Amino acid sequence: IELAELQQGYYLLLEVALANECRRWLLDVRRRQNTHQIGASWMISTFLPLLSPQLGGRIRLAYLMAPTYLRDAAADAAFPTPAYFADKPFMSERFIEENTAITWLNA
Question: Is the pLDDT reported for residue 73 higher than 60?
Answer without folding.
Answer: no
